[in-house]
Design brief:
about 400 residues; three-stranded antiparallel β-sheet; elongated; disordered N terminus; Reverse transcriptase domain-containing protein
């Protein structure tokens, strides 16, 4: 009899291990597909311990569910996600019922609201900015940066961009707003006003008001998650490739028959007007809206800066400076590699690049392959896939 009982225990242990391994494989597949989801495993775990194969799962039942034994267990992958309470038997079952009650706290209750500085454009700000640039004597900045007949490009560009940024600060209003963790980026002042009007007039559908709502892109606030890692650690992490860059730039002599790029104020004006007004500003704090609305006033001075840059074969440092905004790749950040660096460069430099790119394209031979999909406007890998697949179906 004792040998038979030992054999039964061995068979039961083997079956338990096979069941746990099968359960482990199924849960692992689901966790790889949905890494941020909540997983709840409920079963009569008699002679089995799920933590032996899934040690990161937590068991929540702490009372007897059948007689004096705790057999019906509840495992989740989040510690403290639920609190468990016993309930009466169902029908003729000899097992207690188990009730799961969420034990988590809302984010808005766990985190305190924080203050944020924003700039608003009052009525008439653009007109005042245009008048300010119209009355500015831009040649003064160039004369101040000239020494011995040579213009200091760095000083000239920095003084002009600094003056533009200072004028923007004069016509805009700085406001301190309260931002909460559960606040959505599309909940702007216009949306709040429409919601208040809707609540005050319940019989009004406000169809016309809904059509006037503008959605703006928002950025996820990462200030609290950055406290753990620190800004200096992120700077070192993103700038690791600069440690080996010790080669000084050298100016190459262009060929004699090379066509020189000639920029005009009209070309610069057209490029400035094509800037997206909602584009995020770079380190110089010059918004795309300013370049679009004040293109007539800024075209001449920017054309002069671009021409000096081309003649010197050098780019001002303020144009090459970039603001790195770390954006989390996933909700839970555990290391520096979980941030995606978003580079915000100077919009003026982007306009300069477009002008140079336009000139380079005119120098390309006309015999460009029609199947060249990379680095071409309105071309993408989707076009290449469609062309390949359509050719395969046609030949088949």
């Amino acid at each position: 009899m004792r040998a038979n009982s030992l054999e039964k225990e061995m068979l039961l242990g083997m079956n338990t291990q096979e069941a746990l391994q099968e359960l482990y494989g199924a849960i692992s597949v689901l966790q790889n597909v949905h890494p941020d989801r909540l997983f709840i495993v409920v079963r009569d775990f008699n002679h089995a311990n799920l933590k032996s194969v899934l040690p990161k799962f937590h068991q929540h039942v702490n009372f007897a569910t059948r007689g004096a034994n705790t057999l019906d267990l509840v495992y989740t992958n989040i510690s403290g996600a639920y609190r468990v309470e016993p309930r009466p038997h169902l029908g003729y079952s000899d097992h207690m019922s188990v009730m799961l009650i969420p034990a988590y706290r809302l984010i808005v209750r766990c985190s305190k609201p924080f203050l944020k500085q924003v700039r608003t454009w009052p009525a008439g700000a653009i007109s005042a900015l245009q008048d300010c640039f119209e009355q500015t004597t831009w040649i003064t900045f160039k004369e101040a940066a000239t020494d011995g007949g040579t213009v200091n490009l760095e000083e000239y560009t920095a003084s002009v961009t600094g003056y533009i940024s200072k004028c923007i600060g004069d016509v805009t209003v700085s406001k301190t707003i309260t931002t909460r963790p559960n606040q959505k980026p599309w909940m702007t002042a216009e949306v709040h006003m429409l919601l208040r009007n809707r609540d005050s007039e319940p019989n009004c559908h406000m169809l016309s008001g809904k059509q006037s709502v503008h959605t703006h892109r928002g950025s996820m606030d990462t200030s609290k998650t950055l406290v753990k890692h620190g800004a200096y650690a992120l700077n070192d992490f993103y700038a690791w490739f600069e440690a080996q860059n010790n080669v000084a730039a050298e100016k190459s002599i262009p060929p004699q028959n090379d066509q020189v790029l000639c920029l005009t104020a009209a070309d610069v004006n057209c490029t400035l007007r094509g800037v997206n007004p909602w584009k995020a500003a770079g380190p110089d704090n010059i918004l795309g809206r300013v370049l679009t609305e004040c293109a007539d006033q800024l075209a001449d001075v920017l054309t002069d800066i671009f021409k000096i840059s081309l003649s010197c074969a050098a780019v001002p440092t303020c144009f090459k400076t970039t603001t790195i905004v770390p954006m989390p790749k996933k909700p839970t950040v555990s290391c520096l590699n979980d941030y995606r660096p978003i580079a915000l460069t100077s919009i003026i430099m982007k306009c300069f690049k477009r002008l140079v790119m336009r000139h380079i394209k005119t120098q390309l031979p006309p015999s460009l392959d029609s199947l060249q999909f990379a680095y071409r406007f309105n071309r993408s890998t989707d076009d290449a896939i469609y062309h390949t697949s359509s050719g395969t179906h046609t030949s088949g």
